[in-house]
Write a structure and sequence with these properties.
With 268 residues, the chain is mainly α. It contains 9 helices and 6 strands; from the N terminus they run αααααββββαββααα. A two-stranded antiparallel sheet has the order 1-2. It has a two-stranded antiparallel sheet with strand order 3-4. A two-stranded antiparallel sheet has the order 5-6. The longest helix has 20 residues. The chain is flat. Its cofactor is [4Fe-4S] cluster.
């Protein structure tokens, strides 16, 4: 029996996808009255229950941040605000109830004293990741971007986690990916080290290298905060530990160890 070549398998998969008829919604989504039912549910009973839950959370567990900020410089959410943002984000996935969800979100935020267009009410992905672009499979030459922390095509090969090509299911070359990530780490740290400084008062870029203060007597700050660099390094650290990349792990841990984010932000 002649084995199927990876490129031929890829061609057959793409051809079958192009020739497949468009499937109609299944289950409750196929019912013509489903959108109207969802709108009535969100605008009626569900809204009242969510209002009650939000009030209980806000009363029993008020803001616990006390001015604390996360590593991305976003204010830490109170439990009630986190609940509101998560529920509304999930409900907003259905485009047919967008108006009802927007109204529900506005009313729920009003219950906890936060404006609809406040920066605190903006949704931020709680799972930080990094996308490595244009990774090429050596077996079938398929090129794709890999989400290092959320990719679905991950398996174990000889006790080690590896990323798989979605077309031919061949494991990507981990040393090659590790060297690519090392290059990205070096570029990011170099860009952070050589970045411009900006005045905190007039927001002008620092022109003279030896000046301690701006001409307006303001202090200087970095354009990119140290917290952002630290967050990226910790993301790479998690990837290096899971996929056993020793050189990347050693490099990233050294950068984290020698960068005190509480002191590096400000004058340089």
């Amino acid at each position: 029996m002649t084995p199927v070549r990876p490129w031929r398998k890829r061609h057959e998969m793409i051809s079958s996808q192009l020739t497949q008829p468009i499937q109609e919604p299944l289950g409750l989504g196929a019912h013509t009255g489903a959108p109207n039912f969802a709108r009535e549910l969100i605008g009626g009973d569900m809204a009242q229950k969510l209002f009650l839950i939000t009030q209980k959370i806000h009363k029993k567990m008020p803001s616990q941040s006390d001015g604390e900020t996360s590593i991305l410089d976003h204010k830490v959410d109170s439990p009630a605000l986190g609940f509101v943002k998560a529920v509304c984000k999930v409900l907003s996935l259905d485009a047919s109830v967008s108006e009802e969800v927007a109204r529900l979100r506005r009313n729920m935020l009003r219950l906890i004293g936060i404006g609809e267009f406040s920066t605190e009410a903006e949704w931020h992905d709680p799972c930080v990741s990094f996308i490595l672009p244009e990774v090429i499979c050596r077996a079938c030459n398929h090129c794709r971007d890999i989400d290092l922390c959320k990719d679905n095509h991950v398996a174990e090969d000889g006790g080690k986690h590896v990323w798989l090509c979605p077309i031919c299911e061949t494991a990507y070359d981990l040393p090659e990916i590790e060297y690519a990530l090392l290059d990205i780490v070096h570029r990011k740290t170099m860009a952070y080290t050589l970045q411009d400084l900006q005045c905190k008062k007039c927001h002008q870029i620092k022109m003279e290298n030896l000046a301690d203060y701006c001409t307006c007597a303001g202090d200087f700050k970095t354009l990119t905060k140290a917290e952002h660099l630290l967050l990226q390094m910790k993301t790479f650290q998690g990837v290096a530990k899971r996929f056993e990349m020793p050189l990347l792990l050693e490099t990233v841990e050294w950068i984290i160890l020698h960068n005190d984010v509480h002191k590096s932000d400000g004058k340089s």
